[in-house]
Design a protein that fits this description.
By secondary structure, the protein is mainly alpha-helical. The protein is about 60% helix and about 0% strand. The protein has two domains: about 5-180, Rhomboid-like (Rhomboid-like fold), CATH 1.20.1540; about 200-235.
Length: about 240
Amino acid sequence: MPTNADLKKIANSFLPGTLLASVLLAVKSYEWWTATSLTSWGLFPRTEHGLLGILTMPFLHGDWEHLLSNMVPLVILLAGMRYFYPTLALKVFAWVYLLSGFWLWLGGRPSYHVGASAVVYGLTVFLFFSGVLRKDTRLMAFSMLVVFLYGGLVWGLLPFLERISWEGHLFGSLAGLLMSIVYRKLGPQRPIYSWDITHDMEVEDGPDAYWRTIEEKVSDAKKDEQAGNEIDKLT
């Protein structure tokens, strides 16, 4: 049964995604209320004014359906990031955000690209491959949940529908995969169980223990030499 601390941690993990979703909702509400379109603030590849779209694109959406299709996954994915990867969540989010946008600016079709789907794809791929690479049962279980919920996203990587920015989905996925590899040794790691310990790992804490660095071994050797010299003087 989860404790109060666990429930508080779960609740707190939903805060970043909820705040971001609120901003996205506010932007779309402004467009609806003023009967204006902010699409021209989106990302237009390989143009100077389109560079700003790297930052603004995730906040803009074509219609309400487009917004909801990104808003709900963002809340869930960011909650998973905050809960399982508290020390990496902000770094991974920032890199996925910027890399997917920059790569899209370099390689996207000459059209306005809007929506947070590149970030959604990036976080989905990061959570899946990060759990697999770490071989942690908890993280792998969450990876399977991500696949169950958003496995259909794979079809968004294919250029079937002209209105869908499949390039943004692709570059977001690549950014997420890259981050899962770069940060695979940081953050939560698979615990080492007794059955994982091999004979080589059961080395006594001696001068030749495998975990000692070269500097530590040299330092120990010098100490032994000094101790030997002191004994020679006494004799």
